# Entry
Amino acid sequence: MIPEPSTDDLAVRESVRRFALAELAPRAAEFDESETFVGAHLPRLAETGILGLNLPQAWGGVGISPLGLVGAVEEIAAACPATASMVTAHYLATEVILLAGSDAQKECYLPGAAAGRLLGAFALTEPGAGSNPADMAATASESGGLVHLAGTKHFISNAGAADFIIVFTRSADAGPRTSFDAFVLDKGTPGLRFAKPEPTMGLRGGHIFEIVFDCTIPTNQRLGAVGSGFRTAMRVLDCGRIEVAAMALGICQAAMSATLDWVRNRAVGGQPLAERQGVQWMLADMATEIEGARLLTYRAAALRQADQPFTRAAAMAKLVASETADRVVDRALQLHGGYGYSRRLPLERLARDVRVLRIYEGASEVQRNIIARLILQEAT
# Structure
C-alpha cells in the first residue's frame, strides 16, 4: 500500500493549488511569450512558504513530507511549468546543503533560502558531461586553506539570478584516483561569470545558463567531507527525479483538464466529441497512463519518506512519468485539432515545456541504465 499524504500535507497542497491557479497560471503564457524569467514570482512564493517546502522547520522550512512535496510540485507545474522548474532547481541546491553542509553552512543559507531572500542553483552538468557526471572536467586544487576552482557548467537553471550556486568538481590533486567535491559559491564571487540565458524550446520563463568559473575560495565552502561530492550529487538527484516526475504529473493534469473541458463543449457534426467512442478510448488511455505514473511517483516518495532505498523507484517514476506526460500532451493537442496547435490555447506551450522532462535529471536512457543495473544486482 502507498501511504496517503497527511492532513497537513493535503492542506499545504490545497493552499499551493489555490495560489498557483490565482497567481501563476494567469501569467504563464506571458512569461513564455516574453521569455522573461519567472523570478517575479519569488516574493509571493516566499510569502506562501513554497521556497522552503522541502526543508525542515528547524532550518526555516515548512517541513512537509516527501509525499506532500510531490503534491505541491504537481500543482505548481500544472499552473506554470517554468515556475516549477525554477522552484525545483532551488530545492536541489538546498537539498545539497541540508544533506552535506555543516551546521554553520546550513545556518548561513537555508533560512534565507526558505524565506526567499536567497535563490539557489545546482551546477553539475557540463558541455561534455551531461548524463554522465563522472565525465566532468571542472577541477578543484587545494593549497594553504584555499581552493581554486576552474571549469564550465552548462544548462544550469536559475544560475544567472541565483544568490548561491552548488558547484561540483573533480579533484585536480587526486592522481589516478577519481575524487569529486561539492562547493557553494556566492553571487559576486570573483572569477564567476555567466553567459546569456540559453534560448530554449520550452520552459522559456525558467532560464538556464552556462557558468564559467576561475576563482579561489576558502576551503570552508566545501560541502561535506573531501571526496564525498559524487555521492552527494547522486543522492540529491534521486530526490530531484521524484520532483521531475511530479512536474510531469502536473503537466498531465493541466493537459487532461483542458482536454476534458474541450471534448465536452466541442461538437462535430452536431455531436460533442466526448460522446464519440474513439475519443473516449483516447481519454481512457490518457487517464490510465497518468494513474500508473502517479502510483510509481507516490511509491518513490513513500520509500523516501520511510527512509528506505529509493534510487530504483525514483528512476522508474521519472522515466514513466516524463514519457507518459509526453504522450498525454500530444494526445491532448490532437484532440484539440487545429486549435491545439494555436498559441492561443495552452497545449502548444505544454508540448514544448514537457519535452525537456525526458532529458534533465538524467535522460530516459540513463534511467533505464540505472533500473537495469539495480535489478541485475538484486538478481545475483
Remarks:
- Residues 7 and 77 are 22 Å apart (CA to CA).
- Strands lie at 120-123, 139-143, 146-157, 164-171, 180-186, 192-194, 208-218, 222-223, 267-268, 271-272.
